[in-house]
UniProtKB/TrEMBL annotation:
Signal peptide: none
Keyword Iron belongs to the record: no
InterPro entries linked to this entry: Ald_DH/histidinol_DH, Ald_DH_C, Ald_DH_CS_CYS, Ald_DH_CS_GLU, Ald_DH_N, Aldehyde_DH_dom, OHmuconic_semiald_DH
Broad EC category: oxidoreductase
Protein name (Swiss-Prot/TrEMBL): 2-hydroxymuconic semialdehyde dehydrogenase
Lineage, opening ranks: Bacteria, Pseudomonadati, Pseudomonadota, Gammaproteobacteria, Alteromonadales
Catalytic activity, EC: 1.2.1.85
Keyword Oxidoreductase: yes
Aldehyde dehydrogenase domain segment(s): 15-477
Pfam families: Aldedh (PF00171)
Keywords of this entry: NAD, Oxidoreductase
GO molecular function terms listed in the Swiss-Prot or TrEMBL record: oxidoreductase activity, acting on the aldehyde or oxo group of donors, NAD or NADP as acceptor
């Protein structure tokens, strides 16, 4: 059986302590993961600090850009291995992994390799009170050693969304991927090795969050922490890093709404809400969990949404037309099922789903769950307030614009929203009043890597994407010259 190992100072390292890597399609153990220990974290940090002042630290921006393009080229050459590894860890459909996860992982390196070449600074000619002049200008420096902690839902895509800009800006990186999905991170370490990224520049630390993740964020020698994951973990990390006052970037959970206005194109809205609720089994931070439908459309919309949800094909990742695979793990399956039970206890009507599909084959030992639509709950119900992160939405009726804006904003989260309407002025008006970082109108998850990405309230701190990422991963240093 394969053993997945950490990558430290240019070597794969085994700690001698292991836990199982499980395939969520059928519960089989597919690999053993060697969990890093404290000494290994220390070695990774020491090697990264040394690399900052070695050949890596002396590369020009253009040379770093060329190297990052080589990383992308090699990832593209090994694309099938990345696809197979991501499917084995997550059970996602081949279609999704092939069209989103892996190509976007590669694209992140290409994008930031190019973007960093155009990173500018600021400059001001300053008049002193005595009538003299000074020139102020800023230069960008790397932060130093950046700890990258990433989740399991889009493993390669979200890890590279941080690793690529951090390296582009000249930092050294220590990546800790989710313990559920370490395989593509190991392939990425192999790629770094193969294309000649100097040792110590990219390190990979494998292990569980509460064991290894916590040690990494509190270890001396880490200059910044960038984290994508649950809001509760974000709170924990914020407390851990407070002692050493370092930059943090947080992309956290969401409780995202879709609003279907009276002037929506109902075909587009049904298809859009199906996609935004059930893509990746609802395990995307941007997924819709609350749907507000104008009273004039409520009954036909709900009926059509139910039909479409019941037509979703659930199955093996490589099966034709499969839209939903399993959830990522048994633990997560139990968490989502607990919310299905809670919904019933809170008085919800289950429009469709609400349980576990039965296949009468090895998938019955996996982590599958039915796409589920609920209705009948108030906005204060826990099911309408807490992030479930599964293939489920609650559909409510509304009457007017001000009401729906107030209800959509009634959540501790503030990540994303989708608005469905053909009424242009209404779309602009409402989009600006929703307390979230990202609003889509008549679409969902349409991404431009230059656009600011992130959330407000419990959904995060800071923005990623384009120049926002470069701003986080570099430190502007102002130089003032008297002239
Ligand atoms: P999680 O918080 O459990 O784990 C994320 C990462 O943090 C993993 O690598 C984990 O090992 C590590 N970790 C756990 N405890 C830690 C600790 N105490 N110290 C340091 N590291 C620790 O999240 P998850 O279950 O992997 O991912 C799902 C969550 O991520 C959802 O809440 C989802 O909304 C959120 N998410 C947000 C975005 C976004 O861009 N806003 C994107 C994807 C996922």
């Amino acid at each position: 059986m394969d053993i997945l190992q950490s990558y430290i100072n240019g070597e794969f390292v085994d700690s001698g302590e292991y836990f199982d890597n499980i395939n969520p399609v059928n519960g089989e153990v597919i690999a053993s993961i060697s969990e890093a220990n404290e000494a290994m974290i220390g070695q990774a940090i020491a090697s990264a600090r040394e690399a900052l002042s070695g050949p890596w630290g002396r590369l020009s921006v253009n040379e770093r850009s060329v190297l990052l393009h080589k990383v992308a080229d090699r990832m593209a050459e090994r694309e099938q291995e990345f696809i197979d590894a991501e499917i084995a860890d997550t059970g996602k459909s081949l279609f999704q992994v092939k069209t989103i996860d892996i190509p976007r992982g590669t694209a992140n390196f290409r994008f930031f390799a190019d973007q960093v070449k155009y990173q500018g600074g600021e400059s001001f000619v300053t008049q002193t009170p005595g009538g003299e002049k000074a020139l102020n200008y800023s230069v960008n420096k790397p932060l130093g050693v950046v700890a990258v902690i990433s989740p399991w839902n889009l493993p390669l895509l979200l890890a590279t969304w941080k690793v690529a800009p951090a390296l582009a800006c000249g930092n050294c990186v220590i990546l800790k991927p989710s313990e559920e999905t370490s395989s593509t991170a190991v392939l990425l370490a192999q790629v770094m090795d193969e294309v000649g990224v100097p040792k110590g520049v990219f390190n990979l630390i494998l292990g569980r969050g509460k064991v290894v993740g916590d040690k990494l964020t509190t270890a001396p020698g880490i200059d910044a922490v960038t984290f994508t994951g649950a809001s509760a973990t974000g709170k924990q990390i914020m407390k851990s890093v407070a002692e050493t006052v370092k930059p943090i970037s947080f992309e956290l959970g969401g409780k995202n709404a879709a609003i279907v206005f009276a002037k929506a194109d109902i075909d587009k809205a049904v298809a859009g809400v199906i996609r935004s609720t059930f893509t990746n089994c609802g395990q995307v931070c941007l997924c819709t969990e609350k749907v507000y439908v104008h009273r004039s459309l409520f009954t036909p919309f709900l009926e059509r949404l139910k039909q479409a949800a019941e037509n979703i094909k659930i199955g093996y990742p490589l099966e034709q037309d499969v839209f939903m695979g399993p959830l990522v793990s048994k633990v997560h399956q139990q968490k989502v099922l607990a919310y299905y039970r809670l919904a019933r206890e809170e008085g919800a009507e289950v429009v469709t789903g609400g349980g576990v599909p039965v296949f009468n084959d090895d998938r019955d030992s996996g982590c599958f769950i039915e796409p589920t639509i609920l209705t009948g709950l108030g906005d204060e119900a826990r099911v309408n307030q807490e992030e479930i992160f599964g293939p489920v939405c609650h559909v409510s009726v509304f009457d007017d614009e001000e009401e729906v804006i107030r209800r959509v904003n009634n959540t501790p989260y503030g990540l994303a929203a989708a608005i469905w309407t053909e009424h242009l002025a209404q779309a602009h008006r409402v989009a600006a009043k929703i307390d979230v970082g990202l609003v889509w109108v008549n679409t969902w998850f349409l991404r431009d890597l230059r656009a600011p990405f992130g959330g407000v309230k419990l959904s995060g701190i800071g923005r990623e994407g384009g120049e926002h990422s470069l701003a986080f991963y570099s430190e502007p240093s102002n130089i003032c010259i008297k002239i």
